[in-house]
Amino acid sequence: MTKKKRKQILQRSGLHIFYIILCLLALVPILYALNLSFERGSGALSSGLSLFPKEFTLDNYKNILTQKPFLRWFYNSAVLSFFTMVIAIGFAVVSSYAFSRYRFKGRNGILKLLLLLNAFPQILSMFALFRLLKQMNMLDTKLGLVIIYAGSMCIFSIWNMKGYFDTIPVEIEEASKIDGASDFQLLWKVVMPLARPAIIVTSVMVLIFVWNEYLFSTTFLLNENSYTLAGGLYQLQSSDYTRSWGMFSAAAILVSVPVLIIFFCIQKYMVSGLTAGGVKG
C-alpha cells in the first residue's frame, strides 16, 4: 500500500468517525425526549440526563390520547396537509411546466416576482390575511387556511419543479407529439412520470411544512377543536400541562412518527428530486 493510499484511507476514516459522532450528538435530544415520554413522573429538569427510563410506563401516551383531543388535532393537520398538497402541487405542476417549456412575454419577470414574494416573512402578511379571512367568513375554517397554505407553497413548488422540468430532454416530448399525443397526454403520460422524483419530494415537503406550521394555524384557528398538532402542542406546554413534560414529549413523538414514516418511504427519491432541480434555473 502506497503512502498516498494510506493517507486517503486515514482521511476518509477520520471523516466517517466525525460524521458518526455528529449524528450521535444530534440524536441525544431525540433520545432524551423519547426517554421522558416513557418515564413515570413529570420532572424534566429536576432529574439528571438519562437516555433510558428509570421506571417504564405508557401512561403518558395513554393520557395524551384520552385526556386531550389529540386525535382531533391529528385529523385537522392531516386534512390541511392533504388538501394543501393536492391544490399546491396541482397548480404548480402545470405552472412550472409552462414556465419551463414556453417562452412568453413577462416570463422572467413573473418568476422573479414569485421569488420576491416568497422572500418576505410570513408575519408581514398576518394582519392583512386576518382581515381578509374575517371579511370572507373564513376565519377559524380549514378552507381559509388551505387557501393560505396552498398559495404560499405553490411558489416554492413552482420553482423547485421548474428546475427539474428543465432537465427533461425536449426531444422526448417532440417524439410524443409526432406520435399524436395531445398537450394533456404529453403532460400526464410522458412528463409527469419522468418528473416523478421531483413531484414526490416537493409534495412531501409541502406536506411537512403544513404539518409543522405554527404561526398561521394558531392565529386563524380560534377553537380548541380546530387546532392543528402544532397549536395543540403549544397548548399542552402553556396551559395546565406545563409541568407534564412526559406527556408533552409523548405528544411530540406521536407528531413526528408520520413524518418519519413518509420520509423513509420516499428517501430513494430525495437525492434526485432535490439535486436535479438545481441543475438549471
Keywords, separated by commas or semicolons:
single chain; 281 residues; mainly alpha; MetI-like fold; 2 domains; 0% strand; disordered C terminus
Polypeptide structure, described:
One of its GO terms (cellular component) is plasma membrane. This is Putative sugar ABC transporter, permease protein. It is found in: Cell membrane. The protein has 281 residues and is mainly α. It has two domains: 3-57; 68-278, MetI-like (MetI-like fold, Orthogonal Bundle), CATH 1.10.3720. The chain has twelve helices and no strands. The protein has helices at 3-38, 59-66, 70-101, 107-119, 126-135, 142-167, 170-178, 183-194, 196-212, 215-220, 229-238, 245-275. α3 packs parallel to α6 (142-167), α3 runs antiparallel to α9 (196-212) and α6 packs antiparallel against α9 (196-212). The chain is flat and about 70 Å long. Residues 277-281 have low confidence and may be disordered.
How would you sum up this structure in a few lines?
By secondary structure, the chain is mainly alpha-helical. It has helices spanning 3-38, 59-66, 70-101, 107-119, 126-135, 142-167, 170-178, 183-194, 196-212, 215-220, 229-238, 245-275. Mean pLDDT is 82; it is low at 277-281.
Topology:
Blueprint lengths: L2 H36 L20 H8 L3 H32 L5 H13 L6 H10 L6 H26 L2 H9 L4 H12 L1 H17 L2 H6 L8 H10 L6 H31 L6
Tell me the β content.
under 5%
Overall shape: it is flat
Number of domains: 2
CATH architecture of the largest domain: Orthogonal Bundle
Q: Which stretches are low in confidence, meaning pLDDT under 50 for 5 or more residues running?
A: 277-281
Helix-strand string: HHHHHHHHHHHH
CATH top level label of the largest domain? Mainly Alpha
Under CATH, the topology of the largest domain can be stated as MetI-like fold
The number of distinct helices, counting runs of at least 4 residues, comes to 12
Distance between the termini: 45 Å
Q: By CATH's scheme, which homologous superfamily of the largest domain applies? A: MetI-like
Helix content: over 70%
The helix-and-strand class reads mainly alpha
Report the sheet with the most strands, covering strand number, pairing sense and barrel closure. none
Organism: Roseburia hominis (strain DSM 16839 / JCM 17582 / NCIMB 14029 / A2-183)
Protein name: Putative sugar ABC transporter, permease protein
Keywords: Cell membrane, Membrane, Sugar transport, Transmembrane, Transmembrane helix, Transport
Family: Belongs to the binding-protein-dependent transport system permease family. MalFG subfamily.
